[in-house]
Design a protein that fits this description.
Helix content: 25-40%
Largest sheet: 8 strands, mixed
Structural class: alpha+beta
Number of strands: 30
Length: about 525
Amino acid sequence: MFFGDIPVEEALGGVAVHSIRKGALVLRKGTPIGVAEIAALRREGIGRIVIARLDAGDVGENIAAARVAEALTGATLRVDDAFTGRANIFAERAGVLVLDRPRIDRLNAIDESITFATLPAFAAVKAGEMIGTVKIIPFAIGEAVLQRALGVLSEPVIRVAPFRPLRVAAISTLLPGLKDSVVVRTLQVLKDRLAPANATLIVDDRVPHQENALIGALARAQAAGADLTIIFGASAIADRRDVIPASIEANGGEIEHFGMPVDPGNLLLLGRWGEMSILGAPGCARSPKENGFDWILQRLLADVPVTRADIIGLGVGGLLMEIVTRPQPRAIAEIEAETRPRVGAIVLAAGRSTRMGGPNKLLADYQGKPLIRHAVEAALASKASSVTVVTGYQAEAIGAALAGLAVAFAHNPDFAEGLSTSVRVGVSALPSRSDAALIALGDMPLVDPPALNRLIDAFEPARGALIVLPVAGGHRGNPVIWARRFFADLQNLQGDAGARQILKANTDAVVEVSFKSAAVTFDVDTPEALVTLRQN
């Protein structure tokens, strides 16, 4: 292939190497140079141009890309028309991406002009998702180079193993202290994981964390025709002789592998009983966040064999991003070095009290004090390491109502735009060494120091208790404690929307503290609520 800077008059039959824009001329990179293009270049006073021109035995970039892409793809894939030397490959069905890594490496090593990139091996893909791309770097390659590439691709090197509609059994073992709500959330997370594969949860069995009970549950799962049984233990598997593996073997099953070099996901167990696969789920499987459990489950759902060697080979790349249930060693050391984490209180007092129909509710009298003063004094009398009051509407009056109290003030000039703006201001104003924020509402005067202390005591980062919220009468209330790692999420809130989406995305980090009193769910939003407060 010729490549070079030549006079415009000699460019006929080549393609433009660079885009050219001058006056009325727009000549894009890759445009074939014909008589009309030469005339347009002359009109704009352009005398020379860099072109590429194929020689005998050259194959154009688009033709070469298409031929390579078609040769390397297997079933359930499609190749789009090549353009600018690129042919993109898409999955036609949902499933797991299966690659021949050695031959892909050989293809990329043939010549620098041919490149092939894919998603990671065994990635779960959706129908229509792009999973690979062939790119021919120059405008053409030699036929001999292309034939060498096709020789490596005598059979496909990439395919999608489609998901199968498996019948799945879930067995949850129970111990005192394990809440029903945890089991319910776990099963919902599992259903969400099974949905892309159209797999069906046919058994929901809950038994004591005892060998005999689990033996019976496994027998029931097999009798129900389960293709795959997943065991969520109330206690993590600690040894091959522990309850879950012992129960599998007692039924005549076998343990194919225990342990996995993926974190989170270390304590996964892979077993089999006859035709039924068995997964002993690690604790992280209760979380919707991607972890090692997903990697193995997705392969089984696509009928991709998982061997001991496959699991052992997951170590490189097996250290996943830090998740909320596994603090970094540095964070643990910091926590252990102190008597307790530093929880800074933020009292939101910037609102306009629009539902009150006029006066600022935070200045309303209750037992001889403004409502806001009750909330702030409770925070000061609690174990909170600091108290920051966010002001906005009638800031001077709020400040006067809190005269003499040792608090920091942070003004929110955008208070009219919603509660989220006050949260952002409050989080930004916390002392830099705060480990968490206790976000309290200024219109909840019945939340007292003991209630705040119960919430603060429940905040235990080393044990994964990173979001603490009160519950009364089956309803979640306020205030809520948020670990520092959620500060960025809180500062991205918009309008009057609360933090429900953050809670939903981090259920594994949430700890609920039960209260008999409705104080944690009672706020003074309306004149009627104020009357109720004063009467009762």
